[in-house]
Amino acid sequence: MSQTYQPKSWVGMLAYRFAPALFFVGLIALWELVCQVGKVPNYILPSPSAIIKAFFDVEFSRWMGHLWATLRVALMGFALSILIALPLSIGMIRSELMNRTLYPVLIVIQSTPVVAVAPLIIVLLGTDDPSRVLITCLITFFPLVVSATTGMLETPPEMIELSQSLRAPRYRETWQIRIPYAIPHIFSGLRVSITLAIIGAVVAEFVAAEEGLGYFIQFSTSFFKIPQAFAGLIFLAVISLLLFKSVQWIQAWLFPWSLPKKK
Amino acid sequence: MTEVSNKAAYVSMQGVGHRYDPNPDAPMAVQDIDLDIHRHEFVAVVGPSGCGKSTLLRMVSGLLIPSHGEVSVFNRRVTEPRDDVGIVFQKANLLPWLTVRKNVLFPLKHKYGHYTPEDEKRTDELLKMAGLTQFAEKMPDELSGGMQQRVGIVRALLLNPDILLMDEPFSALDALTREQIGFDLLKIWEENPKTVLFITHSISEAVLLSDRILVMSKRPGTVLDLIEVDLPRPRTSKTINEPRFAELTDLIRGHIYEPNVPA
Predict the structure, then answer these.
(1) Considering the domain boundaries, does residue A190 fall inside one?
(2) How far B246 CA lies from chain A's nearest CA (Å)?
(3) pLDDT, tens digit, 9 for 90 and up, residues A38-75
(4) What number of other Cβ atoms are within 10 A of residue B10's Cβ?
(5) Contact B85 A177 (CB under 8 A)
(6) What is the pTM of this model?
(7) Which ranges carry the ABC transmembrane type-1 domain (chain A) (predicted)?
(8) Per the CB < 8 Å rule, is B81 touching A167?
(9) Nearest residue on chain B to A262, judged by CA atoms?
(10) Main-chain phi, psi angles of A169, to 5 degrees
(11) Domain total for chain A?
(12) What is the number of other CB atoms lying within 10 angstroms of the CB of residue B3?
């Protein structure tokens, strides 16, 4: 991203400022045009206007019910993932034995396609929230472990020497030096994980659910209500984007020093 | 090589050597170092890159226990980091999430978990002495490299150490800043005498600052010469123009560029 871009005229400046939005609007207009002119049936590719209409045809309370179901599972899975990943990372940093023991297991879990395991988890834990939360957790926790351990290992060795030269207790080395140094890494892990959490919740709903946006999309598709399925998909994408941005806002609010320097 | 001194040895190295690899055939990083440093003496160590200067410093700090010989401070063998040692690293290594003032207080916070109002008062005095009062509430990245390293020095002085170990502290700074901060260090040292072990790549810096200079050979680093710097104090920018200054720098340069490793 070039932050030093200096347009020559005010036209250039306006173009630079609004180019992303204009391009996006243009794409949607083109989509609408293709559907209208080509008379593409709605059950093949619905036009943007049909999708918007379908969105408003569904009652608001129904949307909120599905949204809450998905968001609840995604956020619980994400939270559980943080609760497991961070202590695990700290343990693996502090103990070589623990690192050696657990790392292969983590690799095996990460290498197993969670989508394929999902039906087995449903059999094991039933069709309620616990199995959906576990599926979400399995998808999200690996990036967190990797980012947290990488961050803690990248602490400048001289800071560790400073800690050792003071003969400070090791828990303070972890809390006052290693974890803060890992914050930028942890947040890039969190940004990856929060979008994976939505994927995890949707995968779980595809396997077994009676509500949620993933369930709504699957259900709409099976009844050939394609515009409605698209409306659900776009809603899901917007929620995912908002969650991603929220993680960035939280980082900027709590740890402003950890952001890359602006010019 | 044995150093006979009329003053009492404060830091004493006897037959000190270190091999990082436990295999007895592996090369030594440093070997056969005999050196007595008097209390409040300023000793510089110069030598080519990789000659084990930093290894030497870490052995005095107690961060590294030598595989051969022993280091003692005030007739007590160094077996772990001591409370009366302050270390200044090559990079300032300030914590980016703490203000300058809190960075200076960090060793106390890290070692004991808290600090007292008296400690804060002392911090403010140290910051004043280093000309940093107006930067006390700034974040490290708002400071120039020279200012950051001043904070690093002040931090090392917080616990009022008797021994100050400096590992190429000014090597990341530009030439002008470097000279200025060198004189500032001398001023601080003259007002609060400390035993200083100062590692540097710069021959002129070593001559300008120190009482004696230990010249080390290429790896495995050992003592090539120990030079008394008989330039009068206080030293100023005029010291550089004295003929004796040129003689001493030439002498050291000769040692480093001629491959006359002693038998």
Answers:
(1) yes
(2) 35
(3) 888 888 899 999 999 999 999 999 999 999 999 999 99
(4) 18
(5) no
(6) 0.84
(7) 67-247
(8) yes
(9) B141
(10) -60, 150
(11) 1
(12) 15
CB A207 within 8 A of CB A134: no
Q: Which of B97, B160, B171 is the best residue to mutate to test the A interface, defined by the most A CB atoms within 10 Å of its own CB?
A: B97
Could you tell me if B114 lies within 8 Å of chain A, comparing CB atoms?
Answer: no
Domain that holds residue A188: 67-215
CA distances from A262 to A1, A2, A77, B171 (A): 12, 12, 34, 27
> How many Å separate Cα A41 from the centre of its chain?
33
Residue A222 lies in a domain: no
Q: Is B93 in Cβ contact with A167 (below 8 Å)?
A: no
Residue type, A189: G
- Across the range B212-234, mean pLDDT stands at 87
Can you tell me the distance from the alpha carbon of A203 to that of A136, in angstroms, rounded to the nearest whole number?
8
Tokens 């200054």 correspond to what residue? B245
- Interface residue B118 vs chain A (CB under 8 A): no
Option in A163, A167, A257 nearest B96 (CB) = A257
Six token digits for residue A63: 């949307």
* Neighboring chain A residues of B154 at a CB cutoff of 8 Å: none
Stated as kind and residue range, the H or E segment containing B42 is: strand B42-46
Q: What pLDDT sits at residue B21? A: 87
ipTM: 0.87
Does residue A55 belong to any structural domain of this protein?
no
B114-173 tens-digit pLDDT:
999 999 999 999 999 888 999 999 999 999 999 999 999 999 999 999 999 999 999 888
Token pair, residue A172, equals: 């303070």
**Residue A98, domain member (yes or no):** yes
Neighbours of B98 (CB within 10 A): 18
Which residues from chain B sit within 8 angstroms of residue A158, using beta carbons? 89-91, 93
B48-107 per-position pLDDT tens digit:
887 888 899 999 999 999 998 999 998 889 999 988 899 999 888 999 999 999 999 999
Helix (H) or strand (E) holding B35: strand B30-38
Copy the structure tokens of residue B80.
Answer: 């772990």
CATH code of the domain in which A140 resides:
1.10.3720.10
